[in-house]
Amino acid sequence: MKTLPITLTTLLLSAGTALAAPGSADLGNAGLAVWIFFGFFGLIIAAQFIPGMILLGSMLKGLFSKTPTLEKENR
Description:
Layout: H1 3-19, H2 32-64
């Protein structure tokens, strides 16, 4: 019954040093697949930027344009 807490404690203590290892975020030695993935991600962001700007322009145009006033019917 006591082996489970001891095992979990040991795993958690050893994982902390592995996650804090120096050089784990070094992209200088990244392979070609990593750079292709980053390029594809950038392409997705760029492709979504243009329609977003068109939508923002249409929204601002609709907000700041003068709307025609409705004529009141006096019948």
